[in-house]
């Protein structure tokens, strides 16, 4: 200390003694999981029906069963009725959000029909889970059915539209 008092310029070169110092360390980590994929296994098909003479509806359950109401008559010929099916694959045991539109539009030329969709998923779409464990691959089957209201004024034709299902890790 006496030396610092005698030569202040030289004192600047000497290290200062820390009175109290603490330290802690942390580690870094990164987990890389396999990417999600989604595969369409089947399209949503309502099959063929006769133009109704009064209002009614046609529906496809998520199991693929067709039902009709009121003035709608189902035909056994034509497209086989079925629910849309998708397989989501990724890292097992991971939480997912699934997006399914509440409705889609089927069109035939200038004519349109609104399909109200339903799914086989239990609970909120934003809280789904892939099968398996974190060290394995996992899957989730998503099935989408729907119902269409028809009127006696519904024009005959082949009505088509797009159903987009997407998934993201939470």
In words, what does this structure look like?
The structure is a single chain. With 170 residues, the protein is mostly beta strands. Helices cover 5% and strands 41% of the residues. It has helices at residues 2-6, 8-11; strands spanning 37-42, 48-50, 56-60, 66-70, 73-75, 84-91, 95-99, 103-108, 111-119, 128-129, 137-150, 166-169. The strands form 3 sheets. Strands 1, 3, 4, 6, 8, 9 and 11 form a 7-stranded antiparallel β-sheet that branches. A 3-stranded antiparallel β-sheet has the order 10-7-12, with no helix packed on it. Strand 8 and strand 9 form a beta hairpin. It is elongated. The relative contact order is 0.24.
Overall pLDDT metric: 91
Approximate shape? elongated
- Rounded radius of gyration (Å): 31 Å
N-C termini distance: 61 Å
Percent range of helical residues: under 10%
Q: Structural class, judged by helices and strands?
A: mainly beta
What is the count of β-strands? 12
Q: What sequence of helices (H) and strands (E) makes up the elements?
A: HHEEEEEEEEEEEE
Largest β sheet strand count, sense and barrel closure? 7 strands, antiparallel
Oligomeric status: single chain
| β-strand amount | 35-45%
Total helical elements: 2
Low-confidence stretches: none
């Amino acid at each position: 200390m006496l030396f610092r008092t005698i030569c202040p310029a030289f004192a600047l070169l000497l290290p200062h003694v820390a009175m109290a110092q603490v330290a802690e360390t942390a580690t870094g980590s990164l987990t890389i999981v396999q990417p999600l994929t989604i595969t369409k296994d089947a399209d949503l098909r309502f099959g063929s029906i006769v133009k109704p003479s009064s209002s009614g509806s046609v529906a496809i359950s998520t199991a693929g069963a067709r039902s009709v109401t009121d003035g709608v008559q189902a035909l056994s010929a034509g497209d086989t009725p079925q629910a849309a099916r998708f397989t989501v694959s990724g890292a097992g045991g991971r939480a997912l959000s699934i997006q399914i539109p509440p409705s889609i539009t089927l069109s035939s030329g200038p004519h349109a029909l609104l399909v109200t969709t339903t799914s086989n998923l239990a609970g909120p779409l934003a809280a789904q889970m892939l099968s398996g464990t974190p060290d394995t691959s996992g899957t989730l089957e998503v099935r989408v059915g729907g119902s269409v209201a028809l009127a006696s004024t519904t024009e005959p034709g082949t009505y088509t539209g797009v159903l987009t299902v997407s998934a993201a890790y939470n």
